[in-house]
From TrEMBL:
The lineage of its organism: Eukaryota, Metazoa, Chordata, Craniata, Vertebrata. Residues 33-406 form the Integrin beta subunit VWA domain. It comes from Nothobranchius furzeri. The keyword S-adenosyl-L-methionine does not apply. GO terms for cellular component: cell surface; focal adhesion; integrin complex. This is Integrin beta. PANTHER family: INTEGRIN BETA SUBUNIT (PTHR10082), INTEGRIN BETA-2 (PTHR10082:SF15). Belongs to the integrin beta chain family. Residues 578-659 form the Integrin beta subunit tail domain. Its main location: membrane.
């Protein structure tokens, strides 16, 4: 039972708590053990009772809500359901007066929680502001030149703060510090004379530029405070934003120098008329080191102002508000931990889910907060966080651990009779010894390879028994479904509960689910039995259904490949029947062609008639047969894919045979003529070549120059002989 703050009001006008019962649901996923069950959800419980599961039933049925487990027959004392546990380690009562050394304003101070993931735990934190509780107030004043006109008013504001403190508590201290800006460009003029006197020349009361200066430690002396504040003078810088964040950081971390007390409420009041520098502004001056959150005051002056970037923090606190408003919140939470607050007071306020706020709380008034802590997941080790009121020293340490394991108090026997003396009990489940498997360790694998046995329970090397059964000695023992029926099949792959639905009804309510497929009742069809058996929309002109070339599904034709809806009459992608049926036409009409010997069997799907004139309106086919004659015919497709009626013209058109003698004579004459032409061409080529060579010779001869001299070795071939007896007569 959980309560939530409602909009109704009770008789006294306060918010009324409306309670509603949250339904307990166990959303199971993959469950193999008690630990898996407990981690699944905050309302999941585990039945460790022996023999709770039926033979072949998966052990995951042991995981459910308490109510469901009891309904299934589990003894209430055999149910494991870890609950949250809260232990208060330290709870010092609240103080009424601050006269004691350490007044207690919040209780308890230390709580230990052991949480079940997802199950919230609520505890109450009480608070009462002790009368006269010590308050430390540190006053930070902006002394940049823009504050010149307001300086006197600001000095007076400090006096008013001290007076207000005295009205709230008798134990109050006040301190004082001042700031301007970093003394580097571009924040401040770094000229030596301007650093010493950054104000106008007419301003005589002007102090040197500085970042932050601590002036007065926390004191209860009003005169000391008044003197220090009144003696302050204006300084100056260049830009509008100031170094207020540097000042607030040093005032916070320099506890000893400032004088902060351990048992007081600490207040930091900032008086300025300008904004502050962001961390990125440091790049303008070449300052890149982040603030180290350490104290760097020497002679009350901040020495690291020009070396570290501004630490972004924001303070805006009004004293009167802090004295009457109580805000309870926490520091950084561990991962996967959620905290919610519900204030119980006269004036609760909503300022976010991670804090509880009560306004107008009087001194000594006791209020409380309901703190709800939830762990979203299991944690390996113990973690903690701090809850505290803003501005108050009191702390509540919350330690958290998670309860994710089952304490089943199992029997100690390693060989338990329930497990056939071959295993031990682990939260109601048998954990078998080596060499034995099965729900009750009743399967001995001996020398067999257990992996081989388990492989025989996997279809297509998939999940063992499809995740719907247990592999026992190499065979699947199928589990029961959530509705009580059983999975079936060699690999438990079938069930009768998961068929396709139509209008949120399995098999449209017009069939039965068998192994994941719908078996339709009579007069119903479709993948989900969503259609009636009517074929009116599929009827053709000749009273056939889809011309026998498709099936009528949901009163529409589903045509075979190539055939076109709506009635599968034509086929755009099919071969031309004029060509595919030519051999049948030739053998049926003229008893010739490739099918001449087996025409009756090869052409059983073609009927024909011989006509002088066509009566079929389809296109005319004119094809050449095996003898080279032209056959003219028409085809009409009958019901079915390959049934035809043919009309064939009685006569085929055969061309006259060629004149063989003329062909032979012409061929011989042609060959002779071509031969003569070739010889003449060759002769011409030879003549042209010789002529070219002769002309070349003549040209070379003309270019020659012969020497005209006698060769001494030359002898004339002619010999003259004189006859001495010849007288010439």
């Amino acid at each position: 039972m959980y309560c939530f703050e409602g909009v109704e009001e009770d008789l006294e006008g306060g918010p009324k708590c409306l309670c509603q019962q949250q339904e307990e649901v166990c959303a199971k996923s993959v469950i193999n053990s008690c630990g898996d069950c407990i981690r699944t959800g905050p309302f999941c419980s585990w039945c460790k009772q022996l023999n709770f599961t039926k033979p072949g039933e998966q052990e995951a049925v042991r995981c459910d809500t308490k109510a469901q487990l009891v309904k299934k027959g589990c003894n209430i004392f055999e149910i494991i359901a870890p609950e949250n546990n809260k232990t208060t380690i330290k709870d010092v009562p609240l103080s009424t007066l601050s006269s004691q050394q350490e007044p207690v304003q919040m209780s308890p101070q230390h709580v230990s929680l052991k949480l079940r993931p997802g199950l919230p735990e609520t505890f109450t934190v009480s608070f009462s502001r002790a009368e006269g509780y010590p308050v430390d107030l540190y006053y930070l004043m902006d002394l940049s030149y823009s504050m010149k006109d307001d300086l006197n008013n600001v000095k007076g504001l400090g006096q008013d703060l001290f007076a207000a403190l005295k009205k709230i508590t008798k134990d109050a201290t006040i301190g004082f510090g001042a700031f301007v800006d970093k003394t580097v460009l571009p924040y401040t003029n770094t000229n030596k004379e301007k650093l010493l006197k950054p104000c106008d020349e007419n301003d005589q009361q002007c102090q040197a530029a500085f970042g932050y200066r601590h002036v007065l430690s926390l004191t209860s002396s009003q005169d000391d405070f008044k003197e220090k504040v009144s003696s302050q003078f204006i300084s100056g810088n260049l830009d509008s934003p100031e170094g207020s964040l540097d000042a607030m950081m040093q005032a916070t971390v320099c506890e000893k120098i400032i004088g902060w007390r351990n048992n007081s409420t600490r207040l930091l009041v900032l008086a300025t008329d300008a904004g502050f520098h962001m961390a990125g502004d440091g790049k303008l001056a070449g300052i890149l080191d982040p603030n180290d959150e350490q104290c760097h005051l020497e002679n009350n002056l901040y020495t690291k102002s020009n070396e570290m970037i501004h630490f972004i923090l924001f303070f805006s606190q009004l004293l009167q508000k802090l004295s009457s408003k109580v805000t309870l919140t926490q520091d950084v939470l561990p991962d996967n931990i959620r905290v919610a607050y519900k204030p119980n007071c006269a004036n609760p306020k909503q300022e976010g889910s991670n804090k509880g706020v009560c306004d107008n709380v009087r001194v000594g008034e006791k209020i409380s907060f309901d703190v709800t802590v939830t762990a979203d997941s299991c944690m390996d080790k113990e973690k903690s966080f701090i809850i505290s009121p803003l501005g108050v020293k009191d702390r509540l340490n919350v330690t958290i651990s998670t309860s994710c394991e089952c304490q089943c108090n199992d029997p100690t026997q390693e060989k338990h009779a329930h497990c056939n003396n071959q295993g031990r009990i682990n939260c109601g489940i048998c954990s078998c010894l080596d060499g034995f498997v099965g729900q009750l360790c009743n399967c001995s694998i001996k020398d067999k390879d257990e992996q081989s046995l388990r492989a025989s329970c996997r279809r297509h090397n998939g999940t063992e028994c499809e995740g719907r059964g247990d592999c026992v000695c190499g065979r699947c023992n199928c589990h029961t479904t959530e509705k009580g029926s059983s999975y079936y099949g060699n690999y438990c792959e079938c069930d009768d509960e998961h068929c396709e639905k139509f209008q949120n009804k399995q098999c449209a309510g017009n069939g039965q689910c068998k192994c994941g497929k719908c078996i339709c009742n009579k007069n119903f069809q479709g993948s989900v039995c969503q259609c009636s058996g009517s074929t009116e929309g599929c009827q053709t002109e000749n009273n056939s259904v889809c011309y026998g070339r498709g099936t009528c599904t949901c009163n529409q034709c589903e045509c075979k490949e190539g055939y076109q809806p709506p009635h599968c009459q034509t086929c755009l992608g099919c071969p031309d029947p004029c060509q595919t049926k030519l051999n049948c036409i030739e053998c049926l009409q003229f008893n010739s062609g490739p099918f001449q010997k087996n025409c009756s069997s090869a052409c059983v799907n073609v009927s024909h008639t011989t006509v002088e004139k066509f009566t079929i309106s389809s296109k005319e086919c004119r094809q050449k047969d095996s003898e080279g004659c032209w056959i003219t015919f028409k085809l009409e497709q009958l019901l079915g894919e390959d049934n035809y009626r043919a009309e064939i013209l009685k006569q085929k058109d055969c061309p006259e045979p060629p004149d063989v003698t003329a062909i032979i004579g012409g061929s011989i004459a042609g060959v002779a003529f071509i031969g003569i032409l070739l010889l003449m061409l060759i002769k011409l080529l030879i003549y042209m070549k010789d002529l070219k060579e002769y002309k070349k010779f003549e040209n070379e001869k003309k270019k020659s120059r012969w020497a005209e001299a006698d060769n001494p070795l030359f002898q004339n071939a002619t010999t003259t002989v004189a006859n001495p007896t010849f007288t010439g007569e």
